[in-house]
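Quick one: examine this chain and its backbone structure tokens and tell me how the chain folds. Here goes:
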Amino acid sequence: NLGLVLNIGEIVNVSDDMFHDISEFHRKFRLDKHKKPNLGTSEYQEFRLNFIKEEVAELEEALKNNDKALVFDALIDIVYVTLGTAYVMGFPWRHGWNEVHDTNMKKVRVDSGKQSKRGSTYDVIKPRDWQPPRLEELLRHINELRRKDESPKK
């Protein structure tokens, strides 16, 4: 018995819980978060990108070995490392997630693999009138809010 308690009601705010966990982890190891979105140094970018690639390689290996537990672990690690990267870089995750989710929900399922650039009937595609997520606008808005928050109070 691992002491696991599974309750479907616990799944409702999973993204908030995950971001809290990521924040806790990064604070524990003094991995500072940028106050405003910032990509960091090229050395830091390379470190994070290689870290993500390492986790994806673990997923590939687990799938090749048909190992469910290792696939599950690799998927969680990919999310953990990717979310940690967004956290340290100071991205407004919740707002960005909502924007991307809203635009993704406007996509449509393909009828045949010929409609998919991946050649798969599992794919979804952008309809003709689809608009991309407004992440640049979101980042500008967040930077303006943080700039106002940091300005001296009169």
User: Anything to note?
Assistant: The chain is about 55% helix and 5% strand.
